Amino acid sequence: MTDDASADQPGPWHTAIIMDGNGRWAKSRGRPRSFGHKRGVETVRRIVEDAGELGVRYLTLFSFSTENWNRPADEVGALFELLKHYVEADLEGLAKRGVRIRIIGRRDNLGADLVAIIDRAEARTRDNTDFHLTIAFNYGGRDEIVRACQAIAREAAAGELDADALDEAAIAGHLDTAALPDVDLMIRTSGEQRISNFLLWQAAYAELVFLDVLWPDFSREDLARAIKTYHQRSRRYGGVDVGAA
Ligand code: IPE
Ligand code: IPE
Ligand code: MG
Q1: How confident is the model at residue 243 (pLDDT cuts 50, 70, 90)?
Q2: Which string of b and e fits 45-73 if b means at least 16 CB within 10 Å?
Q3: Domain annotation covers residue 5
Q4: Ligand 2 centroid to residue 20 C-alpha, Å
Q5: How many domains does the chain have?
Q6: At CA 116, angle to CA 81 and CA 175, rounded to 5?
C-alpha cells in the first residue's frame, strides 16, 4: 500500500483526534451546523477503517466535550442524536470486525437511554482485541481527573488506599482510559492549535499534529500525512536521542 506511513515502523499505537471544523464546513456551504456534524460522522466511518490499515491499534475520537454544553440546545440535541444513531447503526458491523468500543466521559448527566446504548456497545465488544475505538463523549480532561480524585479520596477514606502508595500508575488506573496506553499521536483538524481539555494526562508526551483541513474533509491521505510527520519526530521523553553525543 503506497500511502502507508511505513511498513517497518510501528504505530503510532494510540492516535487521538480532536475532530474540529464541522460548523465551519457547513457554514461555508450555507448549511446549518448540524449538517456539518452529520457529514463528520461519515468521516468517522471512513477513518476507523483507514486507521487500522495504517497501523493504528487504539483510536480515540473527541466527539463532545464537557464545554460543548455551552452550545445552543438544538445543536447539543443533534450531537446526542448522532452519537446514538452512530452506535446503534454501526455496532454490529464493528463488533464483527473485531473492534472493541469504549465510550469515555461523564455518565451521570446523560439520559438513561443513551447510557443503555453505551453499556450495550461496550458489553457487546468487550472480548474484541483487533482494534480499540474509544469515543470521548461528554468528556473533559479536567472533569476526568476530578472524578478520578474523588474515587481515590473515597478509597483513602475507607482505608483501602494509603496516600503514600499513590503513584502515577494508580492515578492512571482511576481514569476513564485505565485500559488504554498513553497517546502517541494527537491530531487536531480545522487549523486551531489547542488541546481544548482533551486527554490532558494521557497526552503528556504525545506528538501534536495540527492540520488545516476541516473534519468533514479529513481523508485517509491526511491521516497518512499526520502519521508520516509522527515518524519524523524524535520522541525524547526528557532524555536525549539514542546515539547523541
Ligand atoms: C467539531 O466541530 C465537533 C464538535 C465540537 C462537537 P465544531 O462544531 O467545533 O466546528 P467549528 O469549530 O465550529 O467549525
Ligand atoms: C473541541 O472542539 C471538542 C471536540 C472536538 C468535541 P471545540 O470546537 O469545542 O473547541 P474550542 O471551543 O474551539 O476550543
Ligand atoms: Mg470547533
Answers
A1: low
A2: eebbebbbebbbbbbbbbbbbbebeebee
A3: no
A4: 6
A5: 1
A6: 95
Pocket of ligand 1 (CB under 6 A): 19-24, 33, 64, 68, 79, 190, 215
Q: For ligand 2, atom 3, which residue shows the shortest CA distance?
A: 65
Query: 209 is in which domain, residue-wise?
Result: 14-232
In a domain, 215, yes or no: yes
pLDDT tens-place string over residues 104-152: 999 999 999 999 999 999 999 999 999 999 999 999 999 999 999 999 9
Distance, CA 135 to ligand 3 centroid (Å)? 17
Expressed in angstroms and rounded, the spacing between residue 60 Cα and the centre of ligand 2 is: 15
Active site residues: 20, 68
Position 78 in a domain: yes
Task: Give the tens place of pLDDT for each residue, 2-36.
Answer: 444 444 456 799 999 999 999 999 999 999 999 99
Is the residue at 240 inside a domain?
Answer: no
